[in-house]
Amino acid sequence: LDFVSVMRSGDALLDIFIDHFPKANISKILVQRDEETALPIFKYMKLSPTLAQNHSVIITEPMVATGGTLGMVIELLKEQGVKEENIIIACICAAPEGLLQLSHQFPNIHIVMTALDERLNEKKYIVPGLGDFGDRFFGTSK
Asked: Structure pTM?
C-alpha cells in the first residue's frame, strides 16, 4: 500500500491513515492552484520506489474543486507506471464539477468522500465549502 499526499492539505489526512497503516509507503506531490486561473502548477515530487508495484495507491487530498490538481497528480502517477484502476482518492469535500471532470478524464479511478457540496462559484471555489483547508488545519492564513 502506498499513500500519495498532495502537499500541504493532504498531509492532514495522511496522519490519520498512517495510524492505521504504519507500514505503508509515503510519497509527496506539491501541485498548487493558480488563484487567478484556477489551473494547477507543478512544484515538487518525491515518490516511493514501491509506487508502481501493482497495488493500491491512496491519494490524500481533502477537497476536490475543479479536479485540476488531482488530474495533474494522477497524470504524474500514471507516467510513473501506476495503473489507473489502482488509484483511490480520499477526500472530505467535493464539488460535482470536479468529480465529473475526474470521472471523464480517469474513468477507472475510485473516489471516497464524506460530503458532496453544492457547486463551484465564479472563482472556482466550492460552495458552501470549508475555505482553504490547509490554512484551516494548520492555523495559517494567506
From this structure: 0.90
